[in-house]
């Protein structure tokens, strides 16, 4: 009985998620990453912050911009990045395919262009 109730609940969320992927909806995301909890005297503490904002241009197609900052412990290397990307939400439950490109600038005269592909799952907090 418990499994059936969970299955029906998940099915209901899947049906109700359609409004998330309609044309004109906005997307905003942020995250902390690269947290190095194994602090030691040689490496130091590292962390990163990423932000992303986008708009659904048509149903299931998201175009977004992103930016971020990363600090690498005692090495005094700080990276800043900015980029553009798009995602296609395959199913109405948050599974997506995407591609993006970022420009990374490091404080030690490090510059890089990073193209990437994405496969993932996105959970929306709002209805």
Give the biggest beta sheet.
6 strands, antiparallel
Strand content: over 45%
Oligomer: single chain
Adjacency order of strands in the biggest sheet: 1-2-3-4-5-6
Q: How are the secondary structure elements laid out?
A:
Blueprint: H1 2-16, E1 26-33, E2 46-58, E3 61-72, E4 78-89, E5 95-106, E6 110-121
Antiparallel strand pairs: 1-2, 2-3, 3-4, 4-5, 5-6
What's the short story on this structure?
The protein is mainly beta. The protein contains 1 helix and 6 strands; from the N terminus they run αββββββ. 12% of the residues lie in helices and 54% in strands.
Please give a structural write-up:
- The protein is mostly beta strands and 127 residues long.
- The chain contains 1 helix and 6 strands; from the N terminus they run αββββββ.
- It has a 6-stranded antiparallel sheet, with no helix packed on it.
- The longest helix is centred in the first third of the chain and has 15 residues, at 2-16.
- The chain is elongated, with a radius of gyration of 18 Å.
- It starts with a helix and ends in a 6-residue tail after the last strand.
- Mean pLDDT is 80; it is low at 11-17.
């Amino acid at each position: 009985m418990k499994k059936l109730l969970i299955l029906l609940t998940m099915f209901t969320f899947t049906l109700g998620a359609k409004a998330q992927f309609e044309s004109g909806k906005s997307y905003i995301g942020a995250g902390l990453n690269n947290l190095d909890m194994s602090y030691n005297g040689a490496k130091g503490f590292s962390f990163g912050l990423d932000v992303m904002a986008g708009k659904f241009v048509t149903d299931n197609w998201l175009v977004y911009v992103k930016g971020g900052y990363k600090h690498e412990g005692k090495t005094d290397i700080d990276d800043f990045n900015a980029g553009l990307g798009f995602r296609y939400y395959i199913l109405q439950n948050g599974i997506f395919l995407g591609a993006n490109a970022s420009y990374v600038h490091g404080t030690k005269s490090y510059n890089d262009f990073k193209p990437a592909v994405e496969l993932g799952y996105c959970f929306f907090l709002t209805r």
